[in-house]
Amino acid sequence: SVWVSTFHSTCVRILRRHIDLLGYDTNFTIYDTDDQKTLMKDVCKLLQIDTKIYKERVTFNIIQEGQEFDVIGYKMKIINTYSIASVQFGFEIILEDNKRLFYLGDVPCAEQNYERVKNADWVLHEAFSTSEKNKYTALVSKMHSTVADVCKNMNELGVKNLILWHTLDDNIETRKQRFLAEGKEYFDGNLYVPDDLDVIDLD
Fold first, then answer.
1. What is the model's pLDDT at position 57?
2. Cβ contacts of residue 11 below 8 Å, gap of 6+?
């Protein structure tokens, strides 16, 4: 068949048909500049951020492993999580007294990062669910981590403090109880499962 369309709509049509070959979901949304600004205004409103003081403008940068940034006075280094689903990055931050904090996303910690994460002071890690069978089990088995997976892995690496969470949960009100119950079976360090707006002292 013959297509008559703009360049952009043709590209979107091709992506809708074939983007799964690259490992992405065909249910995606493309944001133009105005869409991005509107989205950020909504986020700022939700978080009660005064956009008269803090502008809603967003700066997009292409990042890669090893890049370093200054974040509120701390050195942050970008690390590759080696996700099998897509290219994803975490980070390492050097805290006071040279304590190390890592964010590893919700994919299992890759062997390529074991030496880096070994004996870390703090790790932030998403856990998709507990290990009991549920509607997310198939998804978890492919590219995500359960609470048990994360806690076993971090315990073997000698991590001292582990912060676990995930927002995709049908029973968010019992998440802390369930995550802690399963996690403590496998993790010997300090385990935290914060609720929204909880503050954790990293000293």
1. 64
2. none
Quick check: 101 and 79 in contact, CB under 8 A?
A: no
Q: How much of the chain is helix, strand and coil, in % rounded to 5? A: 35, 20, 50
106 in Cβ contact with 150 (< 8 Å): no
Q: Which of 82, 140, 85 is nearest to 112 (CA)?
A: 82
User: SS3 string of 142-200?
Assistant: HHCCEHHHHHHHHHHCCCCEEEEECCCCCCHHHHHHHHHHHHCCCCCCEEECCCCCCCC
Could you report the per-residue pLDDT of 72-102, keeping only the tens digit for each? 788 999 999 988 777 889 999 999 889 999 9
Tokens 């990062």, residue located: 113
What are the strands of the beta sheet with 89-94, ordered from one edge? Answer: 68-71, 74-80, 89-94, 100-103, 122-126, 161-165, 190-192
Q: What whole-number distance in Å separates Cα of residue 182 and Cα of residue 63? A: 35
Please, where are the H alpha helices in the chain?
Answer: 7-18, 33-46, 114-117, 137-143, 147-156, 175-183
Spans in the chain with pLDDT lower than 70 = 1-3, 54-61, 134-143, 167-170
In the chain, what's the furthest Cα-to-Cα distance?
65
In residues, how long is the chain?
A: 203
